[in-house]
């Protein structure tokens, strides 16, 4: 799971996003949100969107420097807590800090994760398997479990899936299997948590331009462009997604607009998993 620092167009600029202004609207006014993997890509774009809608946001990630940079960008409604979702002690510490600072959690975006890059079945190692399943599956499961004591009726949990879960892309075996697992976890959590008034849904991005996806090219800029172009060519809408487009769907699932949705999956993929192109 090597993620290369991007030249990333969507979240740029030096001023804190919410500097000197009131939220654009108020779909999450007064809500407390935890976003794992909130220091980059889809998680960072979602943190930005949540704050625009009035939320107080806690973001997590393993790298302190990236967390600090993200918090600076997001402004004073954001806090960063370093932690690896595949480590239970880290998750305990994350939610202990959220509990002591905010007292509760209204929205969880269990988003942290990644893959191995392109590795076919002959070359998969146990170490790769453990890393990807540790972050994507165990990390998601225990993020939800550890958040629950701070959540009550009206809460919303959103889990990041992937179109890879329902397609057979060569070289994405472990990653695809891990995302299929969390899709099913969403259904079971939705069933178990419905009596408590907590909704659980999956957001399923197609190829989206993030540091994570660019990292598959391992720092080779030409390969990076070629990779994004080859992905775009297979997508009915003819391009890869912007993280802000995924964030809009996460916001919808987090908000009261989605009050009758649980166990569901929203594809934000330019038609990738739905339409032949
Ligand atoms: N981009 C796509 O095309 C795409 C498509 C479908 C699904 N997804 C999914 O979307 C989610 C976000 O991906 P992204 O593309 O936005 O990637 P990204 O830009 O690399 O961001 C990943 C975030 O997760 C954090 N993270 C990774 N492993 C972690 C761990 N074990 N514990 C805690 N934090 C961890 C990273 O920070 P640190 O590295 O500092 O920990 C970073 O903040 C992932 O679940 C990914 O599988 C992405």
Give a quick set of tags describing it.
alpha/beta; Rossmann fold; globular
How would you describe what is shown here?
- 40% of the residues lie in helices and 13% in strands.
- The two termini are 30 Å apart.
- The protein has a seven-stranded parallel beta sheet, with helices on both faces.
- Helix 1 (41-52) packs across helix 8, helix 3 packs parallel to helix 4 and helix 4 runs parallel beside helix 5 (173-193).
- The protein has a single domain, classed as Rossmann fold (3-Layer(aba) Sandwich), CATH 3.40.50.
- The protein is globular, with a radius of gyration of 17 Å.
- It is an alpha/beta fold.
- Mean pLDDT is 92; it is low at 1-21.
- The relative contact order is 0.15.
- The chain has helices at 41-52, 64-74, 88-102, 126-147, 173-193, 211-214, 221-233, 243-254; strands at residues 32-35, 56-61, 78-82, 107-110, 156-160, 199-205, 265-268.
- NADP nicotinamide-adenine-dinucleotide phosphate binds next to helix 1, strand 2, helix 4 and helix 6.
Secondary structure: elements and pairs:
Blueprint lengths: L31 E4 L5 H12 L3 E6 L2 H11 L3 E5 L5 H15 L4 E4 L15 H22 L8 E5 L12 H21 L5 E7 L5 H4 L6 H13 L9 H12 L10 E4 L9
Parallel strand pairs: 1-2, 1-4, 2-3, 4-5, 5-6, 6-7
Bound molecules: NADP nicotinamide-adenine-dinucleotide phosphate.
Summarize the structure.
The protein has 277 residues and is of the alpha/beta class.
């Amino acid at each position: 799971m090597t993620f290369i620092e991007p030249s990333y167009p969507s979240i740029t600029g030096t001023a804190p996003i919410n500097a000197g202004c009131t939220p654009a609207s108020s779909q999450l006014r007064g809500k407390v949100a935890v976003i794992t993997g909130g220091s980059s890509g889809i998680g960072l774009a979602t943190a930005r969107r949540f704050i625009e809608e009035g939320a107080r946001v806690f973001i997590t990630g393993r790298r302190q420097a990236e967390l600090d940079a993200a918090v600076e960008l997001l402004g004073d409604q954001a806090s960063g807590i370093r932690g690896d979702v595949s480590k239970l002690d880290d998750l305990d510490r994350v939610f202990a800090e959220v509990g002591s600072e905010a007292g509760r959690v209204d929205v969880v975006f269990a988003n942290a994760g990644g893959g191995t890059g392109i590795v076919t079945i002959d070359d998969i190692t146990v170490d790769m398997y453990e890393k990807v399943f540790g972050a994507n599956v165990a990390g998601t499961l225990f993020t939800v479990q550890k958040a629950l004591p701070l959540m009550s009726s009206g809460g919303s949990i959103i889990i990041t899936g992937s179109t890879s879960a329902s397609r057979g892309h060569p070289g994405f075996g472990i990653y695809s299997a891990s995302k299929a697992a969390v899709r099913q976890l969403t259904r079971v959590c939705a069933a178990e948590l419905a009596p408590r008034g907590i909704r659980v849904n999956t957001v399923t991005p197609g190829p989206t331009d993030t540091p994570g996806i660019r990292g598959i090219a391992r720092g080779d800029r030409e390969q990076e462009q070629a990779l994004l172009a080859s992905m775009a060519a297979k997508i009915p809408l003819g391009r890869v997604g912007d993280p802000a487009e995924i964030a809009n769907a996460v916001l919808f699932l987090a908000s009261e607009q989605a009050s009758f949705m649980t166990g569901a999956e929203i594809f934000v993929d330019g038609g990738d998993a739905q339409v032949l192109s």
